[in-house]
Write a structure and sequence with these properties.
The protein is mainly α. The chain contains 21 helices and no strands. Among the domains are: 123 residues, Serine Threonine Protein Phosphatase 5, Tetratricopeptide repeat (Alpha Horseshoe); 136 residues. The longest helix is centred in the last third of the chain and has 22 residues.
Length: 388
């Protein structure tokens, strides 16, 4: 592979190799595809529409490389079922080896990576894990990206040790893009959080927040606060969240508020994977190479704003539900009777009394079934009396 292509963002690499992988006859027979590809590289949203429109005219004679990009276009539109069909056809085409030539490995790995993303979108984590594992064999930037997905899918399935082992190997690999390194560190802390090691997770997230840049630094700051909250240090967590909200840039007039789910606020590993796929669908290829970018962002500012609002609402509800202490009053004569704003004074009962009371409330105590038998006996006796 030419060195000029080796360091392109992994998703864009496929498009750069596309016509090199396809037979020349296909490029000459379908010039409109080339025009659509050029649009797709710079504006994936608009290019996806053009590619899908061309695909509606027929896909029977398209080479695997073109099917892979068409599957990618369907993936960006959230049509996971059709995307999966295109990727599988690209892999299962009997002429794939001949048509892709020396580019068979990267094209196939892109199709496998697309199948993993489509499986995440469809909620099939086990399938995603398998496809990520296959795509990671490609090595290079694309393989590193697939390895990160493989680890996160394992974590989402509760296989924390497996995920951490994969991430450790990835972190020890030379030449991994900086954005992938930071995302790998976030995934490591996410595994600790999901496994219940809140103290270690908070420390790992905080370190990443201090060292990272851009969106991921804000995500890590939010995650560190949530790890502290789940670990019981709620006062510090709320203070950290409030400080993060102050750090966040103000939304512009044209910015639409982003809908935040509870799973995202709780940093559920599956929600993290789904956020990565959604980012891919909404962003350009240039966000996936080099330094820090939004490719792996969880939109920490949106999460912090929403979480602070939820926690404040919960705190207000708790305070409102607390009983107002009543001034002491003289005990009334006779049986204790509660009045508005005054707690009734009830003598302490023995454990046996409490057990009997619980049985009576449940309808299974001794007095209850005796009474039931008496009622039934009276009814039966009345029936025989009327018959006589």
């Amino acid at each position: 592979m030419p060195s000029s292509l080796r360091h392109l963002p992994a998703p864009l690499l496929l498009l750069s190799l596309l016509f090199a992988a396809a037979p020349l006859a296909h490029a000459q027979s379908y010039p409109e595809w080339g025009e659509a590809f050029e649009v797709y590289k710079t504006d994936p949203a608009a290019g996806a529409e053009l590619l899908i429109e061309l695909g509606r005219r027929g896909t029977d004679n398209l080479p695997p490389s073109v099917l892979t990009v068409l599957g990618d276009a369907y993936l960006r539109q959230g049509n996971y079922g059709t995307a999966r069909k295109m990727f599988l056809r690209a892999l299962e085409d009997p002429s794939a080896a001949a048509s892709m030539g020396p580019f068979k490995a990267p094209i196939a790995s892109h199709a496998e990576l697309g199948l993993a993303a489509a499986a995440i979108g469809a909620g099939k984590l086990a399938d995603a894990r398998e496809w990520f594992a296959k795509a990671s064999a490609a090595g290079g930037d694309l393989g590193h990206l697939a390895t990160l997905g493989h680890a996160q899918a394992a974590i989402a399935l509760g296989r924390h040790d497996e995920g951490l082992e994969i991430l450790e190997a990835l972190n020890d690999t030379e030449g991994v893009e900086p954005s992938l390194v930071e995302a790998s560190q976030f995934a490591t802390a996410n595994a600790l959080l999901d496994a219940g090691d809140y103290e270690a997770a908070a420390a790992a997230f905080q370190q990443l927040s201090d060292e990272a840049a851009g969106d991921l630094a804000l995500d890590a700051a939010f995650a560190a606060a949530m790890a502290r909250y789940r670990g019981g240090d709620r006062g510090e967590a709320l203070a950290s969240l409030s400080a993060l909200v102050e750090r966040c840039p103000e939304a512009g007039e044209d910015d639409q508020p982003r809908k935040v789910t509870r799973a995202e606020r709780e940093l559920d590993p599956t929600a993290v994977l789904q956020s990565w796929v959604r980012n891919y669908r909404e962003q350009s290829f240039s966000d996936y190479g080099g330094g820090p970018g939004p490719a792996f962002s969880l939109h920490g500012c949106d999460l912090a704003v929403e979480t602070v609002a939820v926690l404040e609402e919960v705190s207000s509800a708790v305070v409102a539900a607390e009983p107002v202490p009543a001034e002491p009053e003289a005990a009334p004569a006779g049986p204790a009777a509660g009045r508005a704003g005054t707690a009734a004074v009830v003598p302490a009962r023995s454990e046996a009394d409490q057990s009997t009371a619980r049985d009576a409330e449940a309808g299974g105590g001794f007095p209850g079934w005796i009474a039931a038998l008496v009622v039934v006996g009276v009814l039966v006796a009345g029936w025989f009396w009327r018959r006589g």
